[in-house]
UniProtKB/TrEMBL annotation:
EC number: 6.1.1.18
Transmembrane regions listed in the UniProt entry: none
GO molecular function: ligase activity
Organism of provenance: Zhouia spongiae
Domain tRNA synthetases class I (E and Q) anti-codon binding: 459-533
Renumbered residue ranges of the record's region Disordered: 125-145
Protein name: Glutamine--tRNA ligase
Family under the similarity heading: Belongs to the class-I aminoacyl-tRNA synthetase family.
Record keywords, A-Z: Aminoacyl-tRNA synthetase, ATP-binding, Cytoplasm, Ligase, Nucleotide-binding, Protein biosynthesis
Catalysed reactions, as listed in the record: tRNA(Gln) + L-glutamine + ATP = L-glutaminyl-tRNA(Gln) + AMP + diphosphate
Ranges of Polar residues composition bias in the record: 125-139
Span of domain Glutamyl/glutaminyl-tRNA synthetase class Ib anti-codon binding: 340-440
Domain of life: Bacteria
Length: 559
């Protein structure tokens, strides 16, 4: 496939602009989050797109915070966004804020008033909305549309100086009340908000609307290509109209282009809905490992490479669609398969006693860390007379297709010996409490004996009882039972919360895990991929389940 054919449609636009005379050193991109929540997996696609273009064209990328709404924005969100972008492995050229440009935006608004292209409207928001009309019916001009320039300037300055209550006035652009694009019907440019801003304090009592601040900020920063999601397509006409009012032909004119938002199944990515999950205590916070936030995915054990691979796989498109979360899970599974050391942990233990193994004896056996490594490394795991295995790995009576431990049949213990089930002990309720086995002394893995080469159908993971380290394991599943929890008009998305999305169990792990640190990732053999949570302490090691070894959800759904 040729390089040309592998371009996405955004890259084609850039290539065409370069052919039309835009110089390569004039290319500049930006990622413009509003600091009113944590970044989620949808933002990751936008980050990878903009910073990927920066890498491809060796062009700078700005991180610009669209901080025009002091009622919803916090420094906590700014810090979290920067942390997430850095964690994904990207570097921005300039850290910018729309609030850096408040004075310039104000000065330009004054210029628009002087040109007769903006006016102060003293009606309330409901009346203004009614006068906008409908897509099939033209709007009605405001009675204040023809206020004199002098009066507009005087009131607008008063608004800036805090002389009016919130809602008393707004500044509107004077465009076209009969435009087929509703956004062009004299849009609001400024509203009064007598609230402190997290960066400018109480300097301002008016704040610019997104549509006014966004394109002009792009222009101030000389961003060449301003990439937005598809819902901003109708805004493009207004973006260009606002630029027309201030554009200097000797400068780069910013160009807005749109790509489709990719929604992820079994979750929500609306910041408002994510905030509800946090505020109503459905999850423990923005970084709860069930959240689709980048910080939640990081805490769950997702890697930057897996998220970038996911973004690259789904690509950039012009049409919205729902991406199955199993694709994201495939990406992390594939990444951790290469990177994560294999260890042994038992999460639903039952005790096995090897009756012919000497009491008090222990051996330290060689276990490979990761078969995917180019140079194989090993660690030592202790073996003794009493071990734990998974309860589901034993059946008293089993059919021929059960290749795990049963009475009278042999099974291999990973890195250790072949054992055979002999008898069981049960409690008064009939639950098995101990399994008695015998072992073949000559069958130790890797010993080179004839017995060690013997083929048995099943291999089990295990942990020595005497050496086991008790661990807390948080088993996470999908937060919602429905692929599109917010796709039902007649139901609240919270009705689809999965009651099984978190189970906490106590398990036993091999002693090598006693030294593990928050963020470290492992494959618990035969169980899945797990990482150490930030809640872990020396006394209580906590693991989060990142993902299983295979996609079991599809099978459950089929049932």
């Amino acid at each position: 496939m040729s390089e040309e054919r592998s371009l996405n449609f955004i890259e084609h636009i850039i290539e065409d602009d370069l052919k039309a005379g835009v110089k390569k050193d004039q290319l500049r991109f930006r990622f413009p989050p509003e600091p009113n929540g944590y970044l989620h997996i949808g933002h990751a696609s936008s980050i990878c797109l903009n910073f990927g273009l920066g890498n491809r064209y060796n062009a700078p990328v700005n991180l610009r915070f669209d901080d025009t709404n002091p009622t919803k924005e916090e420094q906590e969100y700014v810090d979290a966004i920067k942390r997430d972008v850095e964690w994904l492995g990207f570097e921005w050229d300039r850290e910018c804020y729309a609030s850096d440009y408040f004075q310039q935006l104000y000065d330009w608004a004054v210029t628009l008033i002087k040109k007769g292209k903006a006016y102060v409207d003293s009606q309330n928001s409901e009346t203004i909305a009614e006068q906008k009309g409908s897509p099939t019916k033209p709007g009605t001009p405001s009675p204040y549309r023809d206020r004199s320039v002098a009066e507009n300037l005087e009131i607008f300055e008063g608004m800036k100086n805090g002389e009016f209550e919130e809602g008393a006035h707004v500044l509107r652009a004077k465009i076209d009340m009969s435009s087929t694009n509703m956004l062009m019907r004299d849009p609001v440019m400024y509203r009064i908000l007598n609230k402190a801003h997290h960066r400018t304090g109480n300097d301002w009592h008016i704040y610019p609307m997104y549509d006014w601040a966004h394109g002009e900020s792009d222009y101030i920063e000389q961003v060449s290509h301003s990439l937005c999601t598809l819902e901003f397509l109708p805004h493009r006409e207004l973006y260009d109209w606002f630029l027309d009012q201030v554009y200097d032909k000797n400068k780069v004119r910013s160009k807005q282009r749109e790509f489709a938002r990719r929604n992820l199944s079994h979750t929500v990515v609306s910041k408002r809905k994510l905030l509800r999950l946090v505020e109503e205590g459905v999850v423990s916070g923005w970084d709860d490992p069930r959240m689709p936030t980048i910080s939640g995915l990081r805490r769950r054990g997702y890697t930057p490479d897996s998220i970038k691979k996911f973004a690259d796989t789904i690509g950039i498109a012009k049409r919205e669609n729902l991406i199955d979360v199993s694709l994201l899970e495939f990406c992390i599974r594939e990444d951790l398969n290469k990177k994560a050391n294999r260890v042994m942990a038992v999460l639903d233990p039952v005790k096995v006693i090897i009756t012919n193994y000497p009491e008090g004896k222990e051996e330290w056996l060689d276990a490979e860390n990761n078969p995917e490594e180019e140079v194989m490394t090993y660690r030592k795991v202790p073996f003794s007379r009493e071990i734990y295995i998974e309860r589901e790995d034993f059946k008293e009576e089993a059919n021929r297709k059960f290749f795990r431990l049963t009475l009278g049949k042999e099974v291999r213990l990973k890195n250790a010996y072949i054992i055979k089930g002999e008898s069981v002990v049960k409690d008064e309720n009939g639950n098995i409490t101990e399994i008695y086995c015998t072992y073949d002394e000559d069958s130790r893995s890797g010993s080179g004996t004839e017995a060690s080469m013997r083929k048995v159908k099943g291999t089990l993971h295990w942990v020595s009882v005497a050496h086991a380290r008790e661990v807390e394991v948080r088993i996470y599943d999908r937060l919602f039972t429905d692929p599109e929890p917010d796709g039902h008009e007649d139901k609240d998305f919270l009705e689809f919360i999965n009651p099984e999305s978190l189970k906490i169990v106590k398990g036993f792990a091999e002693p090598s895990l006693a030294e593990s640190k928050p963020g470290e990732q492992f494959q618990f053999q035969r169980l899945g991929y797990f990482c150490v949570d930030k809640d872990a302490t020396e006394e209580n090691i906590v693991f989060n389940k990142t993902v299983g070894l295979r996609d079991t959800w599809a099978k459950l759904q089929d049932k």
